[in-house]
Design brief:
CATH architecture of the largest domain: Alpha-Beta Horseshoe
Low-confidence stretches: 1-5, 7-14
Largest sheet: 6 strands, mixed
Strand content: 15-25%
Mean pLDDT: 92
Number of helices: 17
Distance between the termini: 52 Å
Radius of gyration: 23 Å
CATH superfamily of the largest domain: tm_1862 like domain
CATH class of the largest domain: Alpha Beta
Shape: globular
Number of domains: 3
Structural class: alpha/beta
Length: about 525
């Protein structure tokens, strides 16, 4: 398949041992509907790749895109009035990044933003940026592999635009290999000349994932400030995919990971000092298994974790029994992010969402009833979050009216939502929306989106935050992450942690407790109630 092997005379294969091979991993960070790998979230891709290389006894080094940027621009984080988040996450390897890359036989670039958002303390890199920086470092001649979400169907950096293709990447990279971690041993064996097929994805991950814990020593920051994304399954349990969804393109069938393998991976990370886990790399945690399966998984994870949270949940599969399991074993501040997308019945039908507004309201009330009690860190134990998408098939002015109607009902019923995530749909080729409507409704209604979004923020988010954390609420164990002028922004380690703005420049990467003094549209103000600690 690939005619040119890597140009190395020192590499030879013997069982699981590769002698003389040097591999550098560059993490540009990833964000998908079912998986987050933007700092401080440590995604599965770098850990799996690092584990596959370590299992083969290959010399491997982990770098972030921030490390590569730092080769061209030095930055004093403490000295700037506003933190430069593009350089915030340099690793211990940063100072020798240029040398590591120049000595590498293979450079693996992980990239891809399928659900782009705004990030407090990180700036994801694109494939275009990675190519530009590698060229500037004089590394065009190196054997380079692109992997991660970008290697499948490209990336979408902006909502409402067709995902960017891979024509330039095919010219630049020697290989483009989705999930390269699954075939690294075979690629090492054939000297990177042929990409084999994979028949047992989770069998391979079960072998390599525990080895990936060795990456912890090369990560940015203290491991207690980071949270590892944990994978449970591939595919979607819904029969008919949503019109915009790429999950069935990546995995047509639902394949579940063995709970013992998940716990084994988490135990390795925990032993290495990373004890915070977000079980988020799946379409719906409620679809992973029955109540007993969830009990076994989360009961095991809770024994080896400091923070244990979840992410995605489909309202169709939410029930009382499984919600009680999550509340029993997970940490306070947990959020079940519900893929609502729209409360408009026409939009629900046109896009095969299958979650009518009555069902969504019922499941929001259910999660509140079981999980709304306040935990030791000051946050409720488990709350729903909801996603709203602009630009779906059938969207009209009445769509926003329906969204506001049901959001007000949720507010008026005394229920709580941890957060409302609003974005424009990203169009991907191969999805029904990407291939048919191609952004028809986005083009039609985009001039209304700012008004619609602002109305939700002012009329729903603001009073909801006042209910969620009333003035006087004590929030514990907040990590100071970034500065903006003379304000320090801090948040807890977790799945969707609340941002707290505190007066003064307190020093970064410290733990504080803060008492809520005021509310913004999506964040709160607070005062430190004790002295910061390292």
């Amino acid at each position: 398949m690939y005619d040119t092997p890597i140009p190395s005379q020192t590499v030879y294969w013997h069982g699981l041992y590769v002698v003389g091979m040097r591999v550098s991993i560059i993490d540009c960070y990833t964000d998908e509907p079912s998986g987050l790998g933007v700092m401080p979230y440590i995604g599965t891709y770098p850990r799996y790749i690092f584990g596959a290389l370590r299992r083969c006894r290959t010399d491997a080094h982990y770098l972030t895109i921030d490390d590569i940027r730092s080769q061209f621009k030095q930055h004093d984080i403490e000295g700037d009035m506003k933190t430069h988040i593009g350089l915030r996450n340099t690793t211990p390897n940063a100072e020798m990044a240029r040398e590591l890359l120049s000595r590498s036989d293979v450079i693996i670039v992980i990239a891809g933003m399928h659900t782009p958002g705004k990030y407090l303390s990180a700036s994801p890199g694109t494939t275009v940026e990675s190519m530009r920086l590698l060229s500037a470092l004089g590394l065009d001649h190196k054997f380079k592999i692109l992997t991660g979400p970008a290697s499948t169907i490209g990336s979408g950096l902006y909502g409402g635009r067709m995902a960017r293709g891979l024509s330039a990447e095919r010219e630049y990279f020697d290989m483009i290999v989705p999930e390269v971690e699954l075939v690294l041993d075979k690629l090492l064996e054939n000297n990177f000349t042929d990409v084999p097929t994979v028949e047992d994805k989770y069998g391979i991950i079960g072998e390599i994932a525990p080895y990936g814990a060795a990456i912890v020593d090369q990560l940015p920051h203290n491991p207690s400030f980071l949270i590892a994304e944990i994978e449970t399954m591939s595919g979607c349990a819904k029969q008919q995919p949503c019109s915009f969804c790429i999950e069935k393109l990546k995995s047509p069938d639902v394949v579940r990971r063995d709970p013992k393998d998940i716990i084994r991976e988490a135990r390795s990370l925990s032993s290495s000092g990373l004890r915070n886990f977000r079980v988020g790399k799946q379409t719906c945690i409620y679809s992973y298994g029955n109540e007993e399966t969830l009990e076994n998984l989360f009961g095991g994870l809770s024994k080896i974790s400091d923070i244990l949270h979840i992410d995605n949940a489909n309202p169709l599969f939410v029930n009382v029994e499984k919600t009680k399991v999550l509340v029993k074993y997970c940490s306070p501040g947990n959020v079940a992010s519900l893929g609502v997308e729209s409360f408009d019945g026409k939009v629900v039908e046109n896009n095969d969402l299958h979650n009518g507004p009555d069902i969504v309201f019922e499941k929001i009330a259910l999660i509140n009833e079981v999980g709304a009690m306040r935990g030791h860190n000051g946050m409720p134990c488990l709350l729903p979050g909801i996603n709203i998408l602009f630009g779906l098939d059938g969207e009209s002015r009445s769509t926003h009216e329906e969204n506001m109607l049901w959001l007000r009902r949720i507010l008026d019923a005394g229920l709580m939502l941890r957060r409302i995530n609003i974005r424009e749909v990203v169009l991907f080729p191969g999805t029904r929306m990407g291939d048919s409507t191609r952004g028809k409704f986005l083009r039609k209604n985009r001039d209304k989106y700012w008004k619609w979004r602002n109305e939700i923020r002012k009329e729903i988010d603001y009073p909801m935050l006042q209910r969620l954390v009333p003035s006087g609420t004590l929030l514990r164990s907040l990590r100071t992450e970034v500065y903006d002028g003379n304000t320090t922004f801090a948040r807890q380690v977790g799945t969707y942690p609340l941002v707290v703005g505190v007066p003064g420049r307190l020093g970064l990467d410290r733990l504080i407790n803060a008492r809520v003094t005021g509310h913004m549209l999506r964040s709160v103000k607070g005062d430190v109630v004790d002295h910061p600690t390292s």
